Amino acid sequence: MDYEAVIKDTDVIEGLNIRFLKLFRMWNAVNDYRSTGKRNIIIKIYIFGSFLLTVPAAIFQIESVFTIEFDIQKATFMYMHTLPAISLCCRIIVFWFRMDSQCKLYDLMRNDFFDIPERLRGKVKELYKETNKLSNICCLIPFIWNTGIEIWFIAFPGVSVEYIQHRTGSMSAVTTGSKKILSGWYPFPVEEYPNYQLVFAYETLCLLWAANVMAMYFSLFYQILMCLYAQFVVLGFRLSNLKVEFRDDDIATLKTSGQEKKNPRINEELNAILRDHQKLLRYTEELRSIYNPLVTMTLGLGILIITIGAAQLLLGKTSDPSFLFQLFQIFSFQFIEMSLFCYGSSLIETASTDLHFAVYCSDWYRADTKFRKSAQMMMIRARKNMNLTAIVMYPINMETLGSICQFTYSTAALMSGMVE
């Protein structure tokens, strides 16, 4: 490991709130791995606990396809309850196998990631605070939404035990009997005591665990993404504040004497910025490599869930408000996650390409030839878009989100037309 080990709270960039990682003890787990290279007990609990809870639940959900009479509402429930568990397992796998690289990316959170000149440190702190407000809000949204899903699903379970057990009729037609949270089938009489209570407790535990751990892993990945954006913004700010320290009469004297204007400080600062930009590009490539399977999975499951939800709304016959609200919650949560990844990637893309304009805002026209050549090199480097990718090299941005929405609408419309 070629990075500094423990990141103290005082080392974190201004304004970044890491309370979610601390709440779930993941901040200590990351620091332990950075210092020792070993996964501590917290990480192992999240890994094995998640698989022990979610994998059986997903199996029970899939088993219901072969044991219960098929109808579109039941199919919607089954997929809606299974896919989030698959999403959680994929995030765990990505984190487990790429943990060394992921922990290295946490250097982006350090307030000394760049060596900021003394004259700019106060303004850079304010800039960090401003950009990290957005990061904190983006991490808070999924956590709040997950909490709402937990409360609603537990308070108003929508799956009839009689329907699951007797496997007859449509789900919307069975309104009597006890309700449970998930639509999985179990190989024993669920309606009997204490089977019902045990199943309800198990499904409650699965929901609470999966929803909270998913929010934690989202924060784990997303904060790094937004820190990369913040570092690009700071780099652009440093570029735009490269100023030549000459008075106008000094410049006029140099021009009339035929001498070239030289300013060692501005050239040294530009060289430092070039080195920092190269460092930031290396971290960006590492982040894209780690996040490619994660983003591919998130977008793929998002497209599938949104398409299923749209098909249910167009083709389903139920008007049960509880079911429709649950459908809306899962549908909107997946859309929120997709939107945030696309939004964060677009921010990085914009901030990295804005370095062109930052160079233009500097005193390049007052500097010497050496500075201008180095500035041109910086502009050439900044031409390459920095954003997340999916399916190897497919760029992710807000245009991608628009394409997903268009594809979902077209698919749902096609399915509706075929049924009619």
List keywords for this structure.
single chain; 420 residues; mainly alpha; two-stranded antiparallel ribbon; two-stranded antiparallel sheet; 4 strands; elongated
What does this protein look like?
About 3% of the residues have low confidence. Helices cover 71% and strands 2% of the residues. The protein has 420 residues and is mainly α. The strands form two sheets. Strands 1-2 form a two-stranded antiparallel sheet. It starts with 18 loop residues before the first helix and ends with a helix. Helix 6 runs antiparallel to helix 8, helix 8 packs parallel to helix 11 and helix 8 runs parallel beside helix 12.
What is the compact description of this entry?
The chain is mostly helical and 420 residues long. The chain has helices at 19-23, 26-36, 41-67, 72-97, 99-105, 121-155, 161-166, 195-240, 248-257, 264-315, 321-353, 355-361, 369-381, 398-419; strands spanning 159-160, 179-180, 389-390, 394-395. Helix content is 71%, strand content 2%.
